[in-house]
Design brief:
Layout lengths: L10 E3 L11 E8 L2 E9 H4 L17 E11 L13 E11 L11 E3 L2 H7 L5 E9 L43 E2 L5 E2 L8 E9 L2 H26 L1
Antiparallel strand pairs: 1-6, 2-3, 4-5, 7-10, 8-9
Length: about 230
């Protein structure tokens, strides 16, 4: 039987982490047999905080992440790639995971199953909505010389990826073009007045509740910075 394109593990892993950590990141990998299909990295500086050094400073927080989807990237599966060409990196999948940190002595466990309550907690956030992305390419300059025709591709995950047969084809690539010499050192694509337009329609979980909070905090920060600068100049 072919491998499952949407595997479900529902497992929890336990591993010790010393604080303050001596490492900068946590790297995760999807392995098929003996081959690494894709990797993802969680930077501890982005998911934790040591807090302020002063006694009355802002308290920090232990590493935490999710539950949310984490994308994985790896070598692009291209059977036509020759040994002399560069290895292209492509989207290889994503994993719904959560990372939480607890103080104390590990009890020796390394693996366990996720409780049904935790599985039900994320179900309301899994229904999907359709999203559209449109891109306009204005110019392509400083292109290295070469005999091959060039084109650009816009993709979201595996949507728009011309090498992925699991999604419907989309107008996600620009027409092939032959680079022209700019008379100095580099080459460019002669698009002139014809600007290529590409579009990708994809389906993802609705995370607008997180975007709204992030956008609101960003707007408040920009407003405070501009207000502080106005008072300082005044």
């Amino acid at each position: 039987m072919p491998p499952d394109p949407n595997p479900v593990w529902n497992e929890v892993f336990f591993f010790p982490l010393r604080l303050p950590p001596i490492c900068e990141e946590i790297q995760l990998a999807i392995v098929g047999g003996t081959k690494v299909l894709g990797t993802a990295t969680l930077h501890l500086s982005q998911i934790s905080s040591a807090g302020a050094e002063l006694e009355e400073g802002t308290p920090g927080f232990l590493p935490c992440f999710g539950p949310t989807f984490l994308p994985f990237y790896g070598p692009r599966p291209d059977a036509t790639r020759t040994p002399n060409t560069d290895i292209r990196v492509a989207y290889r999948g994503r994993v719904l995971l959560e990372l939480s940190t607890h103080m104390g002595t590990p009890d020796g466990r390394q693996r366990d199953t996720i409780s049904p309550e935790d599985i039900a907690r994320v179900q309301p956030h899994l229904p999907r909505r359709r999203f559209g992305l449109c891109g306009v390419f204005y110019s392509a300059t400083m292109v290295p010389p070469g005999p091959e025709l060039l084109r650009f591709e816009l993709s979201l995950g595996n949507y728009g990826d011309t090498s992925d047969v699991t999604c419907k084809p989309a107008s996600s690539v620009t027409p092939h073009g032959c680079p022209l010499f700019d008379g100095n050192r580099y080459h460019y694509l002669p698009w002139y007045g014809d600007k290529p337009v590409v579009a990708v329609t994809s389906s993802w979980e609705d995370a607008s509740h997180r975007w709204d909070a992030l956008n609101l905090l960003g707007a408040v920060c920009r407003r405070l910075v501009s207000t502080h600068g106005w008072w300082k100049g005044w």
